[in-house]
Design goal:
Length: about 425
């Protein structure tokens, strides 16, 4: 990746995009989700489920939207984010490393910096890091940070004015500012920190949807900038510890892992927090009775968060790779094959949830939602994302109970994984 010129990167991205566009013309619902060209994702999710418990997509992946199969895949230790060949050198028949042929196109994981974001960590590493983070960043530990989260949300809302875009004026600044404080990044670096968070916003989507060259360039630049910023911070905290997460992590693990985990929290955690918050607000404003209930009782915020994680999760697709031959839903899946879990669609499986297409924070929990499966890198973000979304809802419902939508919800292009809100115009 480091030696690839911009024109070479553009050629790789354009080739992947062209293949995805062509495959998307074959009436394959998963391929259409990858193409991310304006099709209704909920209808595509239904079509994926209609294809069977596990179907072979023309996009060369096994795909499921059945809750039972999805849950089994997400729990299976033989399936993970990291490709089994990621650490193996290209080799010829004699086992020697060879140069790729001119017509061979690198995979997206080979040209974009997912490793630096801890996004390709194996299950064992994720479980080990989760155990390390639990006393520092678990739901109980984060409670002491709730007042800081709510103060950050109030400041963002006050600065937004009477008419504002929820995503760019409130959600993004709030999410980045809170994570900055959590990590202990100095206030004078706040603008740089927030800019890097914005620039890396498409990281999860780029794992399956080929981004535009400009988006890829912003991602690479932002990852590099955040790496440099955190490296300096870690060096300072090694000499002068503070009351922050970086200082606490340095007591229990090494510098490189501290940087990787903090990169995940900053560049992926803030994105998922902002997306979940926007999804929750959009869903509430579409269901005025639920919005009124929250305004009357802010303690309903956790229930709203959990229902949003089921109804409109910030991660809609989870791409996994088989690390050995296995059987899933009675189907043989060979080692190296990709298995994609359509999380949002599986969360709307009527076999598990009554009236699954209805947003109802008061519903009885009849089955687990699949938003943050254990053993995957995104599971490390669950307490942070829940805290930020819940705090945001409490503050917004208290400070702006009369808020109304002034335009349609627009979602980011080529956002097959997160379906991230790009614009949500509101007025007080």
């Amino acid at each position: 990746m480091a030696s690839m010129t911009e024109s070479e990167l553009g050629r790789v991205l354009l080739t992947h995009r062209g293949v995805q566009w062509i495959v998307g013309t074959k009436d394959d619902p998963y391929a259409l989700l990858l193409r991310a060209a304006g099709d209704d994702p909920h209808r595509l999710g239904e079509l994926i489920r209609e294809r069977g418990r596990l179907y072979r997509s023309s996009a060369e992946a096994w795909v499921t939207a059945h809750h039972e199969v999805a849950a089994a895949a997400l729990r299976d230790p033989r399936l993970g984010f990291r490709h089994p060949d990621a650490d193996a050198p290209a080799a010829d028949d004699e086992g020697e490393r060879r140069e790729p042929m001119p017509w061979e196109v690198p995979a997206l994981r080979e040209v974009l910096p997912f490793d630096e974001l801890f996004l390709t960590a194996g299950r064992a590493d994720c479980e080990r890091v989760r155990a390390t983070l639990e006393p520092l960043l678990g739901a109980t530990a984060l409670e002491r940070w709730r007042p800081a989260a709510e103060r950050a949300q109030r400041r963002a809302l006050a600065a937004a004015g009477a008419g504002f875009d929820l995503r760019s004026d409130v959600a993004d600044p709030f999410a980045a500012e809170f994570v900055r404080q959590l990590l202990g990044v100095p206030e004078e670096d706040g603008d740089r920190f927030a800019a890097f968070c914005r620039g890396a916003a498409g990281a999860l989507d780029a794992m399956v949807c080929s981004p535009h060259l400009r988006t890829a360039h912003e991602l690479i630049t932002s990852v590099g900038g955040m790496r440099s910023l955190l490296t300096d911070l870690i060096a300072r905290r090694g000499e002068q510890p503070g009351d922050d997460l970086v200082s606490a992590l340095l007591k229990v693990t090494h510098d490189n892992e501290v940087r990787s985990v903090c990169m995940l929290l900053a560049l992926v955690g803030s994105e998922l927090s902002a997306t979940l918050f926007c999804n929750a607000v959009a869903s509430l404003l579409d269901h005025p009775a639920s919005w009124r209930s929250l305004c009357e009782d802010p303690d309903l915020a956790p229930a709203v968060v959990e229902e949003t994680l089921r109804y409109a999760p910030p991660v809609r697709l989870v791409p996994l790779y088989a690390h050995e031959d296995l059987e899933l839903a009675g189907t043989a899946v060979p080692a190296g094959a990709q298995v994609v879990v359509a999380v949002e669609a599986a969360n709307r499986d009527s076999a598990v949830h009554a009236e699954p297409a209805v947003f109802d924070p008061a519903r009885e929990r009849s089955g687990e939602h699949l938003a943050f499966p254990d053993g995957l890198p995104t599971s490390l973000l669950a307490p942070l994302v829940r805290l930020q979304a819940g705090s945001g809802l409490r503050v917004l419902s208290a400070e702006a109970p009369g808020v109304r939508r002034t335009g349609p919800v627009l979602r980011r292009l080529r956002s097959g994984v997160t379906g991230a809100v790009l614009e949500l115009p509101l007025a007080l």
